[in-house]
Amino acid sequence: MEEIRIIDLKESILADNDADAEKLRSELDEQGTYYINVMSSPGSGKTSTILRLIEELRCRYKIGVLEADIDGDVDTRTMLDAGVASVQLHTGGMCHLDADMSRQGLKEVGSEDLDLVILENVGNLVCPAEFDTGAHMNLVILSVPEGDDKPLKYPLMFQEADVVVVNKIDAMEVFDFNPERFKSNIASCCPDTEMFMVSAATGDGMHALAEWISAKMKEKKGE
User: Fold this and answer.
1) For the chain, what is the domain count?
2) In a domain, 2, yes or no
3) Residues of the chain whose pLDDT is less than 50?
4) Is residue 139 situated within a structural domain?
5) Does residue 181 lie within any of the structural domains?
6) Separation CA 112–CA 107 (nearest Å)
7) What CATH number corresponds to the domain at position 144?
8) How many other C-beta atoms are found inside a 10 Å radius of the C-beta of residue 216?
9) The pTM of the whole model exceeds 0.90
10) HSE, side-chain direction, 13 A CA sphere, residue 51
11) For residue range 94-140, what is the model confidence (pLDDT) as tens digits?
12) pLDDT of residue 91
């Protein structure tokens, strides 16, 4: 009897995407564009955090935004109303963005003329962590109402993060969120990850985050 051949499609898809992501990063390096992938669950404050970052950075950099959603254009309209170059990416039911989707969005937003492009990935703490978008930085947002145990429940998302931003600290007293316990949970799965405590609503902590990102951009360009 002939032996059954088994092909691991997921492994093949991820390997192909990883290679494409490396190629995309090289293309962005050549044109001098820095690309940040923002991931979080729905309602964590991705859009408001990105807007605050842009307020801090737009005097120094030309910035564009890619808004990825299964459907709808609410966040893109918010960006455009704020005067930010923005493109809506509909994933057609897919719960993540990959490198080729990023490339299409970057072309449409005109990344060759931008210093920084920020991707607001599809909202969930599972699928986006598995696919390399070609970004130079993965920024993960966790909001205080979600709880301090999420690094233990969704370790891959936090392991893939270069920086974790805890948003809505202005609501800390209302929810059962222990900052020290959260830091311990982060340390248990990804001890080298940077972390910032912010409030996109009040602006607290946003300047420090923006300066850290700016330093990473300069470091990438060898400045």
Assistant:
1) 1
2) no
3) 9
4) yes
5) yes
6) 8
7) 3.40.50.300
8) 17
9) yes
10) 18
11) 888 899 999 999 999 999 999 999 999 999 999 999 999 999 999 99
12) 81
